[in-house]
Design goal:
With 354 residues, the protein is of the alpha+beta class. The chain is 32% helix and 20% strand. The protein starts with a helix and ends with a helix. Bound molecules: zinc ion (2 copies).
Length: 354
């Protein structure tokens, strides 16, 4: 005799003949489809951030460094970085390979291919496309020179197209009709990249979200470095826009344009070619969600909020210039008063003697 539990196990889960059984079968199939397809929709292609970035040197002349470091995140995603000894900016560049096209985000701070052979390196990493190489689209997070100086290196490659960096080129290439609102997409075949306007650091700034890996590329808008903010209200709106975008999206890592702090979140000296114990490149979705409140607290000159150090360099320089001018005027005024007093004192001394 089967035990009670055995009977429950032996009992068919559904009967093919009964209408109620058919309903149960349908419900189970629907559940199975939902259960198996839901995780697939947000299943990200994994990758590795297990990398130690070259930390430069306190004496670059005595300690020569390779000019460009490559890290393979996965089989179709590469992270490139120019060495701190080659340029203190040490910007990061990202290569995403799709089935019909590849995307290079930023071209770095060095124009000369003899110093940093960026285009040659990227072409080597690209898979073949028949007898040639896969078409390549070179785009920028924003117009600052340290993110586009290498553009010219791609001119001799017929498979490469470089997108303009000025605001009109950015708007028209991505077909933004209500900049900085809305989203655009770059289609790499089997890989779609969303383009999100993020002006504030620069009026041309955009961030990129790769749906296949969940990587969010934020340029100088968000990174483990000084956040230089030119337009605070635009930056608040951008921070809110990106936070709203990522809220319901899986984000594996947030990857910016530079690293300027150590693992204790202390900033390195400006223009330092040596970054010992450097902070990791990757930030998190949580950092993106914290950004709007941080930028709202920015006083327009210099504010530290949590791990975010926000600056407006131009305003700080103007404020210093005004302070120096005011101090100079004060000193001059005091000097004039002193001279006048001395003259008056001499005059009255002379009158007493006569
Ligand atoms: Zn910049
Ligand atoms: Zn930069």
């Amino acid at each position: 005799m089967a035990r009670e539990t055995d009977r429950i196990i032996d009992k068919p889960l559904f009967s093919r003949s009964a209408p109620a059984g058919r309903l149960t079968l349908f419900a189970l199939l629907a559940f199975a489809v939902l259960f198996t397809s839901a995780p697939a929709r947000c299943q990200l292609v994994p990758g590795s951030m297990d990398v130690h970035w070259n930390e430069g040197s306190s004496n670059c002349a005595k300690d020569p460094q390779p000019p460009l470091q490559e890290h393979q995140y996965n089989t179709r995603t590469y992270i490139l970085r120019e060495n701190l000894c080659t340029t203190f900016e040490a910007p990061f560049m990202y290569l995403l390979v799709g089935s019909t096209k590849a995307l290079l985000i930023d071209s770095g701070d060095i124009a000369d291919p003899n110093v940093v052979p960026l285009a040659e390196t990227v072409m080597r990493l690209l898979p073949p496309d028949g007898a040639a190489k896969l078409p390549l689209l070179v785009v920028h997070t924003h117009r600052h020179l340290d993110h586009r100086a290498g553009d010219g290196q791609f001119a001799r490659f017929s498979n490469a197209q470089v997108v303009g960096f000025d605001i009109d080129s950015v708007r028209s290439f991505y077909k933004f009709v209500d900049w900085p609102n809305g989203l655009a997409q770059v289609d790499l075949g089997d890989r779609t990249v969303d383009v999100i306007p993020t002006p504030g650091h620069s009026e041309t700034e955009v961030s990129f979200y790769d749906r296949s890996t969940g990587l969010l590329f934020t340029g100088d808008f968000l990174m483990p470095a000084r956040l230089l903010i030119d337009d605070a209200s635009a930056d608040v709106a951008s921070a809110e826009r990106v936070a709203a975008f990522v809220k319901d999206q899986p984000v594996s890592f947030v990857l910016g344009g530079h690293i300027e702090m150590n693992s204790a979140e202390e900033l390195f000296a400006w223009e330092s070619p040596y970054h010992p114990d450097e902070h990791v490149l990757q930030l998190t979705k949580d950092d993106v969600l914290k950004l709007p409140a941080a930028v709202r607290s920015f006083n327009g000159f210099y504010t530290v909020r949590g791990q975010f150090t926000m600056e407006n360099t131009i305003r700080i320089l103007i404020a210093f210039a005004v302070l120096i001018l005011a101090a100079a005027v004060g000193v001059l005024w005091a000097l004039i008063r002193y001279i006048r007093r001395r003259r008056r004192a001499r005059k009255s001394a002379a009158q007493i003697q006569t």
